[in-house]
């Protein structure tokens, strides 16, 4: 839990550095301020790739974002790649996460923490807590998704993370059975 809290704090600090006080978050402006630029790319199955150590003729680290994805999905992918930019340091096959609390976590797969960062940046706990959904019916999830400019599946998954409602109950209320493929995956 301490690592999740540190990732959430980092997202909040990034918002504060950019003077963002309400949704929707301008992920492009925040990334530029943090020294990351986005480049559209054509991928078959990849949503985004972070290039933190670019060739010497490239001035900034960049992330390639799949241009065929829905714009709301691209926003989440951009936030995810910003998480790589802020939390990772390449170390061969193993990356080291840099977190402001001094916590360090080593793993070959940081996907969960980058997803947590993206969700925390685009839908900060403090803002979601102020949203007047309460019962989290289908209409509330759709309103939350519109307010934060994220997909309905991303909004539903974030609610599950924050409030513990079983994900499948929330997801099945908005996505037909068999169509959801993973955390924050749908447009």
Description:
By secondary structure, the protein is mainly α. Strands 1-3-2 form a 3-stranded mixed sheet, with helices on one face. A 3-stranded antiparallel sheet has the order 4-5-6. A hairpin with an 8-residue loop joins β5 and β6.
Key descriptive features of the protein:
mainly alpha; 3-stranded mixed sheet; 8 helices; globular
Mass-distribution shape: globular
Whole-number average pLDDT?
78
Q: What is the SS-derived class?
A: mainly alpha
Give the oligomer, counting copies of the same chain as homo and different chains as hetero. Answer: single chain
Low-confidence stretches: 91-97, 99-103, 178-182
Q: Helix fraction?
A: 40-55%
- Rg value: 16 Å
Alpha-carbon distance between the two ends: 28 Å
Main beta-sheet strand count, sense and barrel state: 3 strands, mixed
Series of H and E elements: HHEEEHEEEHHHHH
Query: What proportion of the residues form beta strands (DSSP E)?
Result: 5-15%
Topology, number of strands: 6
- Strand line-up in the sheet with most strands: 1-3-2
Number of helices: 8
